[in-house]
């Protein structure tokens, strides 16, 4: 059995994207000794791919903006099953978190009067996203990385956690391995923060990197924590569809935020047809009004024109594109056209430099001269670990979660730009709470050797089998199945079939074999990620089957209406039963204060 | 479509490196990283490749393709003559971990020695007002995705031409981003001169040529830093002024950079025409399970 070291910290943060870095910074600043573990090199986490910006009601471009409007937009976008306290904390604290990044060295694009510039995005009433061209995530992660380095936070790079170690009193640490050598390693901690991001690699067509394998959701579930809202997987409306190698790669919503128009093969601006009746008045009435809005935006002026129909919420635009393609009005490669080329080329290159580059380099398309082809791509998990709104503590003591891996803020559909601000607001809150918890724990936590040895055996097992399938084949089959049976539109029979096929895939996974050695062996590493993906995929399928209505990102062909009487104010909750099987039930949403209810009432 | 013929470096520091050949079915628009993923999924599941975003935004999949330092995620197979073999090797400036993965931790250690962003204590943040045209130069530096291709191609680092450590183009770009930040008040000139070794750069612009973000590293970052250092230390008026002030303008404490442990000097041809297959020299042993500090 391979030998390993145990590293002790007050606070262990797993994941070094925006939420993990922000949590580590806050915990360290509060005086805790912090260890930060990440699967990749520091600064490569998925946050680096975020493009459009971070939503914060600073009112630099639209003075009428306020936290109240941001709160309302978030709740309305989430179809009112968001955790209202989280939505309130997020809206009130996001501006300070953005200013804090600037104070740490970030350089956002500027307004004509020299302040942080804000851009419009889908579902946001006002221009609200602080940004740096279309590389906001890079600016954010580099700023946080620099801050973490300046504070001297201990970082464990290219290290994967495969199990949390617990006692009856809660989580006490984690067990994993170094990717470069394959050797095991253990961490003991008085508080553990999961900030591992999403689950996109459960699907073939996704904007997510290999790291997005549902690690945190599965680790928490195995440790006894509850997951909620797992049926709500965001399919971003605009991913690249061609060439095949880049299918799913994100085309930022900023293209539409800057005036991009969606058209089908017949040249129709189809989004006019898909605007929901109850929100129709928030959008332009005519092409002319939409054009006036774009013109004012590009000149940095306020306008009474309403926003174009392309800036509907992501769930709605994704369904619209899917429907256009399915009904035969798609582009040659099975998408629709997104056109920004009617604006001056220099303006497009300045506002969307990385999109210009991405299409030129990877698809031979000059977006200043012609349209892009785009279609839906798996992008974001609204669901995840149930957390306390103020502290990020899960239902397991000593275990915290922040960012995409946690659930509640976004409800049934996340607004673009609300993710980066989520990472900062709840990363900071969770880091502070974890440090506080750690300070209340005396002595060094004891790691149960039986659990640690069990994890060590599980780590070695795939390498020790003399026969068995490799993980790549099972992963391909999982991704294909999830796209086919648990995609944008769902029906009960297909979800039942998905649950059956998941059980088969799980059996195959149980005897998976890895060839080669331990050092930097991706085929072996994938085994553990695949196990996590199987767990979250089952949670998605079971939650989707339970919710017999359509709401936000969850669209049931057999239950096309939103059923507030049965499902309003209710979350799907997944937990592990004593016998190890997965249970799913419906639980009531946390109550909303009268003040917050009043804010929603004003728009209905 | 025809198959692509790839010759991929395989090996680790403990064994003699070798090149393995793979025939990969080509799809339209395919990049070198797609081809390696196909090899992992069908022929060599343990082929070590570092990658993340596959969209040229994270800078993880740096390697040398037919001798050219490139991001594999934006190197298209259609740019090659598919009748010919495409050779894929790890970055040569850094110690080998395994196959196409190198140990780039030296870069992170150098980064720690740069004085971080230092805003003035007496200017409240509400008064930080900058015009877009005034920050565009700094935003250019901040486009860096840390792929380390500029470090890989820099002959000072690659050939270990100096006895003193050299921070390399990546960290000169970072330093430039801090020095020219509109509100930063720190003075890093002494550090750049004595510790960072800005003088070792002799402006061959190899770094600029390989930068996937098209940062004009030499012209916009390194030369302005050299000028700042020259103004401070070699301009007679500045020298007199510094004597009058009674200080060196810096902290007075020399920061020691780590030395890059890599392949020994090859003395061979430049990167565009690398030594033939099988000559990759093993670096020191791979990282142990000790925590990186």
Beta percentage of chain B is: 5-15%
Mean pLDDT of chain B: 87
Unreliable residue stretches of chain B: 264-293
| DSSP strand tally of chain A | 21
Q: Work out the number of β strands of chain B.
A: 7
Helix content of chain A: 25-40%
Q: What best-fitting shape of chain B do the alpha-carbon axes yield? A: elongated
Task: Supply the key terms.
heterodimer; A: 604 residues; alpha/beta; seven-stranded mixed beta sheet; five-stranded mixed beta sheet; 38% helix; globular; B: 293 residues; alpha+beta; two-stranded antiparallel ribbon; 10 helices; disordered C terminus
Describe this structure in words.
The complex is a heterodimer of chains A (604) and B (293). Chain A is globular. Helices cover 38% and strands 17% of the residues of chain A. In chain A, helix 2 (67-77) packs across helix 3 (84-103). Chain A contains 18 helices and 21 strands. With 293 residues, chain B is an alpha+beta fold. Helices cover 31% and strands 12% of the residues of chain B. Chain B has 10 helices and 7 strands. In chain B, strands 2-1-5-3-4 form a 5-stranded mixed beta sheet. A two-stranded antiparallel ribbon of chain B has the order 6-7. In chain B, helix 7 packs across helix 9. Mean pLDDT of chain B is 87; it is low at 264-293. At the A-B interface, helix 3, helix 4, strand 6, helix 11 and helix 14 of A face helix 1, helix 2 and helix 3 of B.
Protein topology:
The complex is a heterodimer of chains A (604) and B (293).
Chain A: E1 5-14, H1 18-29, E2 34-37, E3 54-55, H2 67-77, H3 84-103, E4 118-119, E5 129-130, H4 136-151, E6 154-156, E7 159-167, E8 170-178, E9 184-194, H5 215-222, E10 227-228, E11 233-240, H6 254-257, E12 261-263, H7 271-274, H8 287-298, H9 314-326, E13 336-339, H10 345-351, H11 353-363, E14 372-381, E15 384-386, E16 399-401, E17 406-407, H12 418-439, H13 449-464, H14 471-485, E18 489-490, H15 492-510, H16 522-546, E19 555-556, H17 564-567, E20 570-576, E21 582-588, H18 594-601
Parallel strand pairs in A: 1-2, 1-9, 2-6, 9-16, 15-17, 18-19
Antiparallel strand pairs in A: 3-5, 4-5, 7-8, 8-9, 10-15, 10-20, 11-14, 12-13, 13-14, 20-21
Helix pairs in contact in A: 1-4, 1-12, 2-3, 3-12, 5-16, 10-11, 14-15, 14-16, 15-16
Chain B: E1 3-10, E2 18-25, H1 32-42, E3 62-65, E4 68-71, E5 85-89, E6 96-98, E7 101-102, H2 105-112, H3 132-141, H4 149-153, H5 155-158, H6 168-179, H7 189-196, H8 206-210, H9 217-233, H10 236-245
Parallel strand pairs in B: 1-5
Antiparallel strand pairs in B: 1-2, 3-4, 3-5, 6-7
């Amino acid at each position: 059995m391979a030998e390993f070291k145990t590293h002790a910290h007050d606070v262990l943060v797993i994941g070094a994207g925006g939420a993990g870095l922000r949590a580590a910074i806050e915990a360290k600043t509060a005086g805790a000794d912090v260890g930060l573990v990440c699967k990749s090199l520091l600064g490569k986490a998925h946050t680096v791919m975020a493009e459009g910006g971070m939503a914060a009601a600073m009112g630099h471009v639209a003075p009428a903006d306020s936290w109240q409007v941001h709160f309302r937009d978030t709740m309305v976008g989430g179809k009112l099953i968001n955790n209202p306290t989280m939505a309130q904390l997020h809206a009130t604290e996001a501006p300070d978190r953005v200013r804090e990044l600037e104070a740490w060295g970030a350089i956002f694009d500027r307004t004509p009067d020299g302040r942080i510039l804000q851009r419009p995005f889908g579902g946001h009433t006002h221009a609200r996203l602080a940004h740096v061209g279309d590389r906001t995530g890079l600016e954010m992660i580099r700023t946080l990385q620099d801050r973490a380095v300046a504070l001297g936070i201990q970082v464990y790079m290219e290290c994967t956690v495969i199990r949390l170690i617990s006692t009856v009193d809660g989580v006490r640490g984690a067990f994993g391995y170094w990717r470069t050598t394959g050797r095991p390693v253990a961490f003991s901690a008085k508080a553990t923060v999961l900030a591992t991001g999403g689950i996109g690699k459960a699907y073939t067509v996704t904007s997510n990197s290999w790291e997005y394998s549902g690690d945190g959701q599965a680790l928490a579930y195995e440790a006894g924590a509850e997951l909620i809202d797992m049926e709500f997987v965001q399919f971003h409306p605009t991913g690249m569809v061609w060439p095949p190698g880049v299918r799913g790669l994100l085309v930022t919503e900023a293209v539409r935020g800057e005036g991009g128009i969606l058209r089908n093969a017949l040249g129709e601006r189809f989004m006019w047809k898909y605007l929901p009746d109850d929100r129709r008045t928030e959008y332009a009435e005519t092409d002319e009004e939409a054009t006036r809005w774009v013109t004012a935006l590009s000149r940095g002026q306020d306008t009474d024109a309403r926003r174009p129909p392309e800036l509907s919420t992501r769930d709605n635009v994704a369904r619209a594109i899917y429907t256009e393609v399915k009904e035969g009005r798609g582009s040659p490669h099975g998408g629709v056209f997104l056109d920004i080329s009617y604006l001056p080329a220099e303006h497009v290159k300045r506002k969307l430099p990385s999109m210009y580059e991405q299409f030129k380099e990877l698809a031979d398309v000059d977006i200043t001269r012609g349209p892009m082809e785009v279609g839906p791509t798996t992008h974001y998990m609204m669901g995840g670990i149930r957390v306390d709104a103020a502290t990020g503590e899960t239902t397991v003591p000593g275990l915290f979660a922040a960012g995409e891996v946690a659930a509640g803020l976004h409800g049934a559909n996340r607004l673009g730009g609300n993710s980066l601000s989520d990472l900062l607001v709840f990363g900071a809150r969770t880091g502070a709470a974890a440090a506080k918890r750690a300070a209340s724990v005396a002595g060094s936590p004891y790691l149960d050797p039986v659990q640690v040895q069990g994890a060590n055996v599980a780590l070695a097992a795939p390498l020790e089998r003399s026969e068995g399938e490799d993980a790549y084949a099972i992963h391909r089959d999982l991704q294909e199945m999830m796209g086919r049976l648990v995609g944008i539109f769902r029906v009960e029979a297909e979800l039942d079939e998905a649950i059956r096929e998941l059980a088969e895939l799980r059996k195959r996974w149980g005897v998976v074999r890895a060839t080669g050695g331990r050092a930097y062996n991706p085929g072996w590493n994938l085994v553990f990620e695949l196990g996590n993906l199987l767990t979250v995929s089952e949670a998605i399928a079971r939650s989707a089957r339970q919710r017999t209505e359509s709401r936000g990102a969850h669209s049931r062909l057999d239950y096309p209406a939103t059923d507030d009487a049965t499902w309003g104010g209710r979350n799907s909750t997944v937990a592990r039963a004593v016998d190890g099987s997965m249970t799913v039930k419906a639980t009531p949403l946390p109550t909303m204060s009268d003040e917050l209810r009043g804010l929603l009432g004003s728009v209905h | 479509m025809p198959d692509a013929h790839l010759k991929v470096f395989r090996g680790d520091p403990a064994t003699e490196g070798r090149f393995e050949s793979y025939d990969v079915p080509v799809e339209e628009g395919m990049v070198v990283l797609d081809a390696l993923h196909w090899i992992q999924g069908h022929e060599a599941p343990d082929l070590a490749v570092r990658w993340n975003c596959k969209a040229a935004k994270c800078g993880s999949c740096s390697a040398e393709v037919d001798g050219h330092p490139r991001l594999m995620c934006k190197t298209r197979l259609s740019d090659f003559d598919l009748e010919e073999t495409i050779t894929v090797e790890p970055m040569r400036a850094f110690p080998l971990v395994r196959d196409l993965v190198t140990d780039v931790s030296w870069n992170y250690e150098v980064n720690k020695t740069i004085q971080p962003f230092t805003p003035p204590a007496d200017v409240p943040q509400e008064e930080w007002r900058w015009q877009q045209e005034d920050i565009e130069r700094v935003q250019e530096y901040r486009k860096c995705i840390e792929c380390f291709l500029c470090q890989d191609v820099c002959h000072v680092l690659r050939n270990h031409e100096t006895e003193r450590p050299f921070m390399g183009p990546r960290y000169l770009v970072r330093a430039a981003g801090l020095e020219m930040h509109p509100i930063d008040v720190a003075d890093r000139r002494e550090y750049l001169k004595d510790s960072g070794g800005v003088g070792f750069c002799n402006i061959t612009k190899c770094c600029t040529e390989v930068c996937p973000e098209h940062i004009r590293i030499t012209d916009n970052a390194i030369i302005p830093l050299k000028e700042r250092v020259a103004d401070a230390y070699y301009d007679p008026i500045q020298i007199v002024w510094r004597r009058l002030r009674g200080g060196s303008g810096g902290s007075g404490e020399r920061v020691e950079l780590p030395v890059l442990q890599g392949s020994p000097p090859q003395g061979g041809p430049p990167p565009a025409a690398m030594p033939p297959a099988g000559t990759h020299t093993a670096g020191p042993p791979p990282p142990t399970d000790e925590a990186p500090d």
